[in-house]
Amino acid sequence: MRLQLLLLALGVCAFAQRPNSQIRIYESAFKFLTKATCHIADTEVSKLGANFITFNTTIGSGEVILKTSLSVDKFVCPILDSYISDKDGIHFSSSQGVWRMKGLWSAVYHNPFGLPIDSSANGDAVLSATDLDVDLAAKIVVGADKHPQLQMGECKAKLGVFDYKFNGKFADLPNMFNDFLGTIVKNIVKDLACQITQNTILTKYNEVIAKIPLHYELPYNFSLDWALYEPRYTNNLVEMKGAAKVAYGKKPCESHVTYDEVFQGFKNEESAKDVVIWLGQSLSACALKSVHESQLIKLPINIDSLPDYKDRLSTRCGGWLIFKGGCIGAALKGLSKVGDYAELLLFTAEAPQINLKQGYVEIYGKFGAEVYEYPMEKHPKVLGKILITATAKVKPKIVNKHLIGECDTDDIDPKLDIVKGYKITGFTFGYEKITKGIFKKVSKVLFFAILQAGLPLPSFDGAAISDKTQIDVFDKVIRINMGLELNGK
């Protein structure tokens, strides 16, 4: 049931005074979702019981009273399809469905002369309809509680082959009104088909949609608040504007970039999959600002976290270590022979800046590195503080249902500055290059830690975002071109 909800959850990344995102849901997505709709109809239709063929009619002064009690005996899910109309919204259609009901009937005939010779009869009945075709229009609307809801429009139903038969004592009594009953029952069945679609299936969809929270708790103590703007329908897609408010812990961050400033140049997509989401860079900038203000990144660098870098973290450089490229003890004035190894604690000194450029994401970061004698827990005194300024080029991608970033760390060229007032007072003459090499490795570790954790992508009852989803970066805008897949496929 929740396959349609996957689209809504992806589309409603919104909540702010100004839109800063856009989603386009294509017909292919709705066609994909219809593959899993039959089980809803199977479940709901099988529960159906109906006392719906009940009528009184007169013949002269006589009267016939007919009552039935039927339940579904057989239901074959029809062929399902969907399309989008700019006038009516989303259309769900079905064809070649089969519906058969069995049950009991009873009839009483009061003779027209008031004589005590009334006739009564009862038995079993079979009603069948094939080629039961339904066309239903629906639109996504925003309710008073800010939740999206599916609102049904016009419903049309057609019956191809329709038949029914009454068996039992005096079965000819109801059968004698075959043509008259046929018209009544056909209309009842068509109304019932729309009623099931509108009131039963729709109600269950909206019950689940109503449970989707307006506030999402994300991994790593992030959260997202959203709301949805009214969608626009064209001949092959549903387009919605959205905005988002991201927070880390209790520190929120809102975007202040208008929708038109970001998206006005992007009207059409080529090679669109099922769902296309456009995000402005302000949303990512907000997230990074929250990361910094909440001091989320505190990364220890020591001989335990980087065992292969043990020699470089040594404070006692012999001739062999100098020959291999030196160590941090020889590179920093005031650190030589302080213990055996140094430990660094990395953190963000300023909020990282993000720029979306054609083909990649550029992240500019200013980080701090506090220098301790290893292990820091036993030697909590800060020996020195170094400011590291570095820029990384990142390409976002989806791996194992996680959104991650890859960067070419070989291009990272950190700039280093010593903060005054500590035991470490500067760089040893001739060791600037060695020191930069050490902190180039540190910068690689830092960017890798930020980018590789990734955010898990949502999955709902049976559907998930495909790993074939493409992420493209343009100036100030990022596009997520999503494909959907059934879980386990």
Automatic annotation (TrEMBL):
SUPFAM superfamilies on file: Bactericidal permeability-increasing protein, BPI (SSF55394)
Q: Name one GO cellular component term.
A: extracellular space
This protein's UniProt keywords: Signal
- The signal peptide, as residue positions, is 1-16
Gene3D superfamilies to which the protein is assigned, alphabetical = Bactericidal permeability-increasing protein, domain 1, Bactericidal permeability-increasing protein, domain 2
Q: Name one GO molecular function term.
A: lipid binding
Q: What is this protein called?
A: Uncharacterized protein
Give the species.
Answer: Cylicocyclus nassatus (Nematode worm)
